Amino acid sequence: MEKTILVDHLIKNFEVTVKKPGLTGAFSTLFSPQKKAVRALKDISFSVGKGELVGFIGPNGAGKTTTLKVLSGLLYPTSGLTQVLGFDPWERKPEFLKKISLVMGQKNQLWWDLPAIETFELNRAIYEIPKKVYKESLEELVNLLEVAKLLNIQVRRLSLGQRMRLELVAALLHQPEILFLDEPTIGLDLVAQEKIRNFIYDYNRKHSATILLTSHNMNDLINLARRVIVIDSGRIIFDGILDELIARFAKEKIIKLTLSKEINDKKLEEIGKVRKIQFPEVELRVPRSTAAVAASELLQNFPIEDLTIEEESIEDIIRKVFRGESKKSLRK
Amino acid sequence: MKKYLSVFRISFAQEFAYRLNFIMWRVRNVMQILLLFFLWTTVFSESGRTIFGYNKGEILTYVFGVLIVRAIVFSARAVDVAGEISTGDLTILLLKPINYFKYWLTRDISSKALNLAFATVEITILFSLLRPQFFFQTNGYSLLGFGISLIIAILLFFSILMTTNFVAFWAPQVAWGAQFFVIVVIADFLAGVLFPLDILPSVVQKILLFTPFPYLIFFPIQVYLGKIIGGAMWGGILISIIWLSILLALTNKVWHRGLLVYRAEGR
Known about the structure:
The structure holds two protein chains of two kinds.
Chain A: E1 3-18, H1 22-31, E2 34-49, E3 53-57, H2 64-71, E4 79-84, H3 94-97, E5 100-104, H4 116-126, H5 131-145, H6 160-172, E6 178-182, H7 190-206, E7 210-214, H8 218-224, E8 227-232, E9 235-241, H9 242-249, E10 252-259, H10 265-269, E11 273-278, E12 281-287, H11 291-301, E13 304-311, H12 314-322, H13 326-330
Chain B: H1 2-17, H2 19-43, H3 56-73, H4 81-87, H5 90-94, H6 100-130, H7 140-165, H8 175-191, H9 202-208, H10 218-225, H11 230-261
Helix pairs in contact in B: 1-6, 2-3, 3-6, 3-10, 7-8, 7-10, 7-11
């Protein structure tokens, strides 16, 4: 497969000034600043093929956004190789910038005091989009994202969800081959999230665009990303199909019981972790390998009406990944 | 070229979004000029008096010259650059296939055009109210020199302003202070906004003329007034061109060094 993005042994360190609290602290920082190196990315390597949709997951501060910023040419890599569409992103050549787009959920490019259409026109000029292409592109995006009525309203008067959809229009007018999305659904309500997700999915299909996405929203990942890269403390700890991640990380099974009689839950604790108890329903977590044994033991020794063994939900697993709990279990 | 025309257009539209702000800024300019006008009128209250080689008409022409040249040279949008760097909004422009310097120069020019339009109206009003003695230059040579020195002044100020704002790459907290110091203290004082620099002792003048600052305001006005002509005029233009190339090279260097440490903060 053709490689659109190539990252090899990428390292990014930041130098930060350590600030002491209070007024005296502020003064001492001013005169004798203490520098500290923060290692944001510690030697990461991966590659992405054309048309792939990859989700980045990991806890806060893991290095997901930093990776996207290096790939879009904003940050100067400390060392290592990065290649996007055959370009070195750091050079920020116009031909490169015309083929990518970075959308940040918390940074807007729309001119705050003017209607969004003004920003679109400006982007048409900046990206040198031919008039015909611009018209078609705008029409398609406006229809897909349902923003026709919002184009001539001052951006500051719009809601966050409306603004986010217009941000997407502004970012995609030049039909980028690569799209970097940083928390595209942050702060949006469920309906708005769904709209954005459907759009990303369609865009990926229709234009065979390569999309890299970071999100804290589990639904974004479950519904969009076939492949996920898990980053934690600046290292990649998993890179593969989402299902594989789940298979690898699902170390427990869930046993659900319906009791016929109330019993002492201390006894249940001996068999597995009691997650929920609400008579007559009980939920137990047991290690994967002993699930069958635990189940037969339960059936023999407890007044049970019904018993099922279930897999952990994807949400639970990803939630653990976000909390950084995956570190030990995934790093071999 | 077309992209910068679009930048000019949207920047102009943006200025109008904050009408009140803009009007207050203009009012401040008018107040400042009135203050200078009455100050010098008082000083020259005896008729026929000359001070430091200036008579009343000349000094008033200087004051009005400051109003116009200042509106052209000092009004700039690039004061926002420091803020853009520290909030991480710079990211948005870095992602676009556009030259950062040309972008801000274009925005500056649109701001200057708007300010100049207002300054013209203000001057017409002040002129008809105060009826000062005013000096109109008719010599084509001096007018040409004035035009050239004005363009150099605009670019000089642009590079000084940009470099000052780039301090934010390393120290976002002090960028505003640095800007205030450079524009208000150094530029206003050493450029000759408060008084014509040739009232200073000649040694100080000579030293000053080897710095870039007089070429922002003082020099263009003196050329207009016909006080600096011929060899002195072209010599001054040469010095300012040398300074301009040094400062532009410095600005460019600081910019590239700054990008290396840029952190694209705020996500």
